[in-house]
Design a protein that fits this description.
This protein is an alpha+beta fold. It is built from three helices and 13 strands. Strands 1, 3, 4, 6, 9, 10, 11 and 13 form an eight-stranded antiparallel sheet that branches. A five-stranded antiparallel sheet has the order 2-5-12-7-8, with no helix packed on it.
Length: 231
């Protein structure tokens, strides 16, 4: 009987803990630590289309507290109105079958070229199985540095991507585990970039920070709890 009561209390405790904080909100502790919401859970305030001809309202929708990019909507990428340099970014995401998307950073005013935390269904998307040295798999620095993110992901449930930038040092985290880190603007970085699709991009990921971008790759992907703090 005591064991049964313990199990019931444990289950109730877990349930309470999971629902104690509403999504797309900040706790007092987070606010004190300098965190800010990148998305308010209701509309696209603070975001804009990344293309002069883009219409983010065609496919980016707020649905029950989730920011959803609809499949084949033609809405295009969206970026934050604000630019960021040193920061810690946390975003929950959920992948649909075969989906491809990405969280990009160091995005300039024109185009969508920058560093990318790859969002990909490694089980069902061909990029994960083709000869890209693993650098297009989930959590990888797209086309540059591989990460074995799929081993840590809840395949059809919510996961948390975290990107930390301090000067030239960058880290990718997935569900609380650091899956890669790198240093920009040194000889190793130049070598890695020179062997990628960005080899001819002038000053790739350089300059004074940039916008955060969510990619529309014609697949349905869900986001929530978009939070950032400047370091």
């Amino acid at each position: 009987m005591k064991r049964l009561l313990f199990v019931v209390l444990l289950v109730c405790g877990v349930s309470f803990a999971a629902t104690a904080q509403e999504h797309n909100t900040l706790t007092k502790k987070e606010r004190k630590a300098g965190w800010q919401l990148l998305w308010n859970g209701k509309d696209l305030s603070g975001w804009k289309s990344n293309s002069p001809n883009g219409d983010m309202n065609k496919g980016w929708k707020a649905v029950d507290g989730e920011l959803v990019i609809m499949a084949r909507s033609g809405a295009g990428d969206i970026i934050t109105e604000k630019r960021y340099h040193d920061f810690e970014l946390s975003i929950d995401f959920k992948i649909t079958e075969g989906a491809n998307s990405g969280i990009k950073y160091f995005i300039g005013e024109n185009g969508s070229i920058g560093c990318e935390f790859q969002i990909l269904d490694d089980e069902n998307h061909p990029d994960a199985k083709m000869g890209f040295n693993g650098n297009r798999r989930l959590g990888s620095l797209y086309d540059l540095i591989p990460a074995d993110g799929w081993a840590l992901v809840a395949k059809r449930d919510w996961n948390t991507a975290r990107i930390v930038v301090r000067g030239n040092h960058v880290e990718h985290w997935l569900n609380g585990v650091k899956i890669l880190e790198y240093e920009k603007n040194n000889d190793m970085w130049d070598t890695i970039v020179s062997h990628s699709k960005f080899a001819k991009v002038e000053n790739f990921a350089g300059g004074d920070g940039g916008h955060i971008l969510l990619q529309d790759h014609n697949d349905e992907v869900h986001y929530r709890n978009l939070k950032i703090r400047e370091l």
